[in-house]
Amino acid sequence: METSCCTTSSTNTEISKRKQRQQKENKPYRGIRMRKWGKWVAEIREPNKRSRIWLGSYSSPVAAARAYDTAVFYLRGPSARLNFPEFMVDDIQHHDLSAADIRKKATEVGARVDALQTTGQARADSGRSSEKPDLNEYPSPETSEDNLNF
Question: Structure pTM?
Answer without folding.
Answer: 0.64
